[in-house]
UniProtKB/TrEMBL annotation:
Belongs to the cytochrome c-552 family. GO terms for biological process: anaerobic electron transport chain. Residues 1-25 form the signal peptide. It comes from Anoxybacillus gonensis. It comes from the Bacteria. GO terms for cellular component: outer membrane-bounded periplasmic space. It is found in: Cell envelope. GO terms for molecular function: heme binding; metal ion binding; nitrite reductase (cytochrome, ammonia-forming) activity. It catalyses: 6 Fe(III)-[cytochrome c] + NH4(+) + 2 H2O = 6 Fe(II)-[cytochrome c] + nitrite + 8 H(+). This is nitrite reductase (cytochrome; ammonia-forming). The keyword Cytoplasm does not apply.
Length: 474
């Protein structure tokens, strides 16, 4: 397919330039004529009008039952209404939205309330085509440089594009390529040299530059993927407990209800997929999310409209599942997702209760070591639901694996509640009354209409905030 496109392009260039079939021309026949560090999407438009047009479809905003691309808050009633409690004390309790099309990435990172005057360059890494050039120019100073004052103005002055052609393609040969060093380095820790990747592996690796769990390694604020022990939620947790802590990375934030040092998970599509049935069978991200599409009535190209495959079941799924109908596929996926959401909501509720029980342990002044023990279970319990909740397929990429992870989450949060209950009883605290008070907080957060104010209802006089005061100014 790609070869054919290049032969066409090659002959077109020959006609345009009018040069003869010299050795030089033959050498260049696989070149677009673009600069090797071209990063503006518009530069590719005239050479690849059909791909450009397909890419521009990412502007469409259209939802499916659980996924899709309308800009919506995750706090809405049919999504995850208790997140403002679960992320209390952290930016994710202020604003957290569903993902949408690649073309919106720069606009969305610019406007999100989580970006503050302290945010670093690393936040732009998965949003803009200027990033590889910024890293080339600034070296390791890119990661920790100030987002608002240094990095954003630089990228804007360069005329960058949101996630675009040069992020996945060599602009001269159009071969697939990796542009984000964090992925290359993390795969090395798995013993994989990505320069030796097969064509099929590249159809997932280009996505794995961004659709992964990561943290900012503390010495340089560098985007780092916690994979040295493996891709499973347990293995990434073990990484944070050992390697993360050795580096001085202990937490993303202190929870404002339970005072627990917490980890925040981010969109681990690659890790979830690789442990699931399709990943294990070598079915790539592009197989489902970039099916062939017919354009111009006849030509077939690889679709560059990255969205829910449920919008293109015939091209995305029936190519392999030829014995199934479109309806069967849609129903099967939605069944997986509905079961998944029920379990996810259950895990979130138990985690909410655990946070408040520990808040009560703190105000009732129970033994410090018991509080620490309960907090340890809270940290783990929330990690196990968040690594699933932050994943964007609502369980589809690994139905069995995510269920097992959620069940671990519930188990951990319940252990925190168990420790707390025992200690609170010793102090003569009425646990039934406590449960009622927690339900009142959940209701207040749920009923607040302004998403930005929801988090404020998590805290009251009977559940005082546990965020430590900022360090005193010198
Ligand atoms: C076997 C097909 C298949 C493969 C392979 C696959 N996905 Fe998906 N993906 C889906 C389905 C189905 C959904 C759920 C869509 C929905 O809920 O509407 C989904 C959802 C998503 C979403 C959320 C989309 C939305 O509408 O919000 C993202 C992002 C995503 N996948 C990325 C990836 C990445 C990255 C890979 C490779 C690491 C991958 N997927 C591999 C089928 C697949
Ligand atoms: C997120 C990664 C990604 C981005 C961004 C991207 N592509 Fe692609 N592109 C792919 C993948 C994957 C393929 C399939 C390659 C294969 O299987 O050999 C592909 C294939 C192509 C092909 C080969 C012909 C075909 O239809 O298979 C062309 C030409 C192309 N892309 C042009 C573009 C242009 C132009 C842009 C920017 C407007 C762009 N791509 C942006 C991942 C990307
Ligand atoms: C350079 C980073 C980057 C790369 C590479 C990348 N993505 Fe994304 N992707 C994002 C970001 C960031 C968003 C969310 C954008 C927003 O909400 O503003 C996103 C959103 C999505 C969505 C959600 C769209 C919707 O309709 O809700 C899908 C699906 C998706 N990506 C699939 C893929 C696939 C498949 C690949 C590989 C072929 C890929 N992405 C490569 C960063 C990337
Ligand atoms: C490139 C081929 C390919 C494509 C494309 C593909 N699948 Fe699959 N699918 C497979 C294979 C292989 C298996 C694993 C069969 C096994 O493990 O026995 C599988 C398994 C499944 C299963 C059973 C999973 C389980 O938990 O056991 C479902 C459901 C499914 N696919 C749905 C889809 C949907 C929905 C799409 C489109 C979004 C899709 N598939 C696209 C090849 C594909």
């Amino acid at each position: 397919m790609m070869k054919r496109a290049f032969m066409l392009l090659g002959s077109l260039l020959l006609i345009l330039v009018g040069c003869s079939q010299t050795e030089e021309a033959a050498k260049q026949s696989k070149s677009t004529g673009l600069a090797k560090d071209e990063y503006r999407n518009e530069a590719f438009k005239d050479l690849f009008p059909l791909h450009y047009e397909s890419y521009m479809k990412n502007k469409k905003e259209e939802d499916t039952k659980y996924g899709g691309s309308v800009k919506r808050s995750k706090f809405e009633h049919d999504k995850e209404p208790y997140l403002p409690i679960l992320f209390n004390g952290y930016g994710f309790a202020t604003e957290y939205n569903e993902d949408r099309g690649h073309v919106y990435a720069t606009e969305d990172v610019r406007n999100i309330k989580r970006i503050t005057d302290k945010s670093v360059g690393s936040c732009l890494t998965c949003k803009s085509t200027a990033v590889p050039k910024l890293i080339e120019e600034m070296g390791d100073n890119y990661w920790g440089a100030n987002f608002n004052q240094v990095i954003w103005p630089k990228a804007e002055a360069m005329g960058h594009s949101p996630i675009g052609c040069s992020d996945c393609h060599d602009p001269q040969t159009m071969d697939l390529r990796i542009t984000r060093p964090s992925f290359i380095e993390a795969m090395k820790t798995r013993g994989v040299d990505v320069t030796k990747a097969t064509k099929n592996e590249m159809r997932s690796y280009v996505c794995a530059q961004c659709h992964v769990e990561y943290y900012f390694e503390p010495s340089k604020s560098k985007v780092t993927f916690p994979w040295a022990k493996g891709f499973k939620p347990e293995e990434m947790y073990a990484y944070y407990e050992e390697i993360g802590k050795q580096q001085g990375f202990e937490k993303d934030w202190i929870h404002n209800v339970s005072g627990t040092p917490m980890l925040k998970a981010q969109h681990p599509e690659f890790e979830t997929w690789i442990e699931g049935p399709h990943g294990k069978a070598g079915v790539s991200c592009a197989d489902c999310h970039m099916p062939y599409e017919r354009v111009d009535g006849k030509k077939k190209i690889t679709s560059h409209y990255w969205t829910s495959p449920l919008k293109t079941i015939e091209q995305s799924c029936l190519t392999c599942h030829a014995d199934k109908s479109k309806e069967w596929i849609k129903t099967r996926v939605e069944e997986i997702q509905t079961t998944h959401m029920e379990m996810l909501h259950k895990a979130e509720e138990v985690s909410v209760f655990a946070h408040y029980y520990v808040n009560k342990m703190i105000t009732a002044k129970v033994d410090e070591s018991k509080i620490k023990a309960a907090q340890e279970h809270i940290r783990k319990g929330q990690w196990y639901w968040d690594i699933v909740a932050a994943e964007n397929s609502t369980g589809f990429h690994n139905p069995q694996g995510t269920m097992a992870t959620l069940s671990k989450s519930i188990d951990e949060s319940n252990q925190a509640i168990l420790i707390a209950t025992e200690e609170l009883m010793k102090k003569g605290i009425d646990v039934d009354k406590l449960k009622k008070e927690i339900e009142e907080r959940m209701e207040a957060v749920y009923n607040e209409a302004d998403p930005f104010k929801k988090k404020d209802h998590a805290i009251t006089d009977s559940f005082p905030g546990q965020t430590p005061p900022p360090p005193a100014k010198k």
